[in-house]
Amino acid sequence: MPAADPMLLVSDHVDGSLYALTVPDGTVTGRLTGRHLSEHAGFLALPGGRVACVDDRRGELLVLDPFGGELVELAVPVAVPAEHLACDPSGRRLAVTTGLGKSTEPWSDLLTVVDLATEEVSRVRTRTGEPGVTVPGGGDPLVVLRHREPGALAVHRFADLLAAPPGCPPAAPRALLPLPDDGHGDAYAPGSGHVFAATGEGVHRARREGDGLTAEAVIPWGSPARGWYLRLDTRRRALWSTLRGGAPDPLRWPEWTNQAWRHDLETGRTHLTELGPGLVFRLALARRHAAFTRIHPDGDELVLLDADAPDGGIHRLPLPAMDGAPRRGGTPWEGVQRRAVAASPGSGWIAVTRGGHGEVHVVDAETGCEAARLRLDTPLHHGGHVMLRARGDGAEGDPVGR
């Protein structure tokens, strides 16, 4: 059976609601209203079962304790709209980048750094765009921004950014490492100190040396497709992604191909597993499984892979259709409902939302069966966003917001 004690955070970023629920029974232990969380920056696991996220409307970084009495442990001001969120391996020092928000062109160059221990906050100007971010440790923490067009990894010292004077001054990087212009997807492995960035060429890898980075060999995708999302597996020392192939035209999304990509960081071996056509993006990692949601006009499903033997078992669980789901002839992004998926590396439960219906499917990954269906009093517009945490699950070993 799945491990006891997990808690589920569910956000409807449009409606402005955030719930904390027990799993699998769905008892609501806490709720926030008027909180419009950044779905793109996502949830960031912190030590002690805590979670960080950004309220895009109020311009606040929130530290949540789903296992405590008061859900909000701390709130500090940050620049918004939040694009990406990351922390150093200690969980003390955080960085928040800004993105497009509802604009169609890059316009914000603000970066916020926060020291949770002292509650110091500093804002600086870097470069407009949609930068990814990691906060490597191994000494005084760095802040590494992954830029596009032109692509680069820009290296800053966290202490320099925190000590910047008021007024959002420009902050020049201490070092630059070139990247292709199409970077999208970031990860950091605290054990080895490697920073990873997904591009069309593959996964670019760099290790920290002093206050800079040294490039290492690119990890190939091993497929004509590419990954747009990158995630560190804290239990298996591996990287995961979903490779999307086919015509780039979003109107042809039902024809997109999807493969689960797993790269073992110790052996250097890469595994590819066919997931099926349609829309597959983010993934979640449970104790023994990797979970993917696949949306398609012919039917949606939750796909579970054996994470310890990715060439082995695969289980598919059909999911009920969503009103307002992406349809043939339209794009899978604008004005449609989607699904979010969550899991904890210390548990066997999987949570999948049903956008527009206010429902969360709770699945036992060990049996591949739905164990409960939680119903909330908010629609979960666009699928909402979810995070599952169990006590001592080690999820903070992946210090990038998801």
Structure description:
This is PQQ-like domain-containing protein. It comes from Streptomyces radiopugnans. InterPro entries: Quino_amine_DH_bsu, WD40/YVTN_repeat-like_dom_sf. By secondary structure, the chain is mostly beta strands. The protein has one helix at 158-162, and strands at residues 7-12, 17-22, 28-33, 44-45, 51-55, 60-64, 72-77, 82-87, 93-98, 110-115, 120-125, 132-134, 142-147, 152-157, 175-178, 186-189, 194-199, 202-209, 212-219, 226-227, 231-233, 238-245, 257-264, 270-274, 283-285, 289-294, 300-306, 314-319, 341-343, 349-354, 359-364, 369-375, 385-389. The protein is built from one helix and 33 strands. The longest helix is centred in the middle third of the chain and has 5 residues, at 158-162. The chain starts with 6 loop residues before the first strand and ends in a 13-residue tail after the last strand.
What is the CATH superfamily label?
YVTN repeat-like/Quinoprotein amine dehydrogenase
| CATH top level assignment | Mainly Beta
> Could you name the ranges where pLDDT drops below 50 across 5 or more consecutive residues?
none
Helix content: under 10%
* Secondary structure tally: strands: 33
CATH architecture label name: 7 Propeller
What value does the average pLDDT take? 96
Domain count, please report it: 1
Cα(first) to Cα(last) distance is 26 Å
CATH topology: Methylamine Dehydrogenase, Chain H
Number of helices: 1
Give the amount of beta strand, in percent: 35-45%
What does the overall shape look like?
Answer: globular
Q: Over all CA atoms, what is the radius of gyration?
A: 20 Å
Protein name: PQQ-like domain-containing protein
InterPro entries: Quino_amine_DH_bsu, WD40/YVTN_repeat-like_dom_sf
Organism: Streptomyces radiopugnans
